[in-house]
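Supplementary material to the annual report.
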Amino acid sequence: MNIFGFTFLTVRCSLLRDFAFCMAASLMAWATPAAAATIPSTEPVYLYSSPITAAFFSANGANYDALKARWREYLRTFYGNANREVSRATLLAGLKPGVLILGSAVLMDDQERKAIRAFTEAGGSVLATWGTGARNGKGQWAGYGFLEDLLQMKVLGPVTAEDDLRFINTFGDHPLTWGVPGGQRIFLGVIGETPLRVASPNLAARYFDWQRFPAPRSANGAIAFFEKDNSRRVYLGFPESSWEYDEHLELPKVLDSIIAWLRHRPMVYKSAWPNNFLSAQLLEMDTEEKFTNALNFATELDAANIRGTFYSLTSIAVKNRDVVTKLSEKHEIGYHAEVHVGFKGKSAEVQKARLDTMVSDMKDIVGSRAMPKVTGFRAPTESWDETTEILLRKNGVRHHVADPAASESRVPSFSAAEPGLSTEQAIVVLPRTQMDDLNYKGMRLSLEKASESIMLDFDYLHEAGALGVLSVHSQNYASDGLMAKLTPPYIKRLQQHREDVWAASGEEIEGWWRARERVVIDPYKGLATSFEFDVREPGNVRGIKLFVSHPAINMVPKSVKPSSPNAPQPEIKPIDAYRSALVFPQELKAGHYAYQMEF
Amino acid sequence: MHVLSPTGWLIVIVGSMILATGAALILLARVDGPQRNVPGQLFDAVELFLRDTVRLTFKDRADGNSSDAVFIAPKGILQKDATFVWVENPEVMESRHAEVLPPPAAPARLLDSDWTPAFSGLPRDQKKP
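Predicted assembly:
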């Protein structure tokens, strides 16, 4: 088990930042009283210490402090003096607007419920977790009406053992969860306090099993939110005891962005995808046995004007050069090793010999002039290790499509095999985030069920702002095969989303991910009225998009003006009620950029 | 008696290559369509021709390493005499689940609507006898 630790102190200095933000907010309120009236000050963070819940836990052999302690540790570390633990008496007396945390405050009597409602009606924000309010002051069952009314959602019940939904996946680029990458998989453990599922039109995360099998949409909401009359509310369906299983310490980052939203802070953060795109999709084929079936796949991609990637087993591709030549006219050709045997665990010498053969084969296939264009790799049986990555990079490989376990998120990342490398040099890892044709065949679903599942998977990854990597195998792509029937409707769905889904080849996604990394912004350094960012060398970043979370519902920025006269002007595009996009369609050179923002 | 001397053979080979190159150039020149990089394509064609010659004539692949078969399981897993690398260190196998459930932090039936334990509320809320 991992101890919920305090290792972020070196990452940011939130106390100083809170102070700077408060000063700026106060100055803004003084200068623009009309604006201040619509953006309530919700700086204090209150942790409610529910005495009835504590007494009930004690009377029944449990310890409420074991849950509340998580909040104490987190708030003390990151919110310092802005954080207060409040007693029942203080709650009933009335709190000034701020953020009130109800950490698994399961028992709640009528007076407490009334005080919390009054707090929200005055503009206060609430963060509630798990079964808050499910029992009354006498410990009798009261149901989930308190939560359902507060957040305008429906509590569906606990996640069962059969569901096996032991992970949450957060939405990327979302006003509540932008602090972690899209589709971040966070383990909740196997605990006695089973998480609760909710249905809500406003979600920020869902429950999934490890492989993200697309469960029904109505049944797996994990984080919900709601805003009414300047009062913001957030619900986490899982209890604080789950935090113990967050090995990679992602939950504090989620809580940071949630509390920033509850405090009505407009945060400016970098988007995963360029221009107007909200998610991305790679359609790739492992081209091996029955190599010529690749032309079937290519025909469907061509009809949709989508560029795919064909990772080719070179010992077979060399005998099908005409097919490779045909594919390369519109699509990317990549490596899939020389024979279909994995690399993981093999010595560096063995791997090098194999990769040298693979590269030599590819030269025999495409010729030396075309070799610089072959920069992608996919390991057979998804079996690779750090040695493979080091050797691949030396052979000019710039990206590889890896197994679902390669990353806990559903967006690209940089290889950690050679930590000293810059992001201009390191290999970009594209995790296979969707089930592939082998999975679908193995599940033996009917065509109808498989189709429903793959479409739902698309909805989930688009909702999460994620990278979809749909992998098919040439041997399964005969014209009467399952994938040949599943893929066309999927491609059609992509075409329907051509405005907001970026369907691109592996090398295009790799190139973008590198360019994006040159833009450096710290959302916590921004103020309510300004933000700044840097573009590192070599610059040449076109289409970067920043999101700005609205300080109130539908409060789109009125203007964003550069601080220097020659700086590029972004386009403001509202995305939904809670965020807008600032798109820089121009090419940004290396340098520092600063902007003033007005709401 | 040799039909040709070594010099003669060399002349034949070089002459054949020139003819092949010329034929390729003619074929390329006759193709309609968008403007092509003819010198580049010529280079490609000649290079691939030479590579094919070398590959088909000289390249020797070690046995077992040139199979076109798509292996998913380890090769030879059902062969009696096959050799494998055995996993002896149990630490290699990582478990994603806790081996033992931790003690619950909350009463086990806290969110069970059918559970109504005896509870009198806070001490000050209890009725005085």
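Chain A touches chain B through 64 residues (CB under 8 Å).
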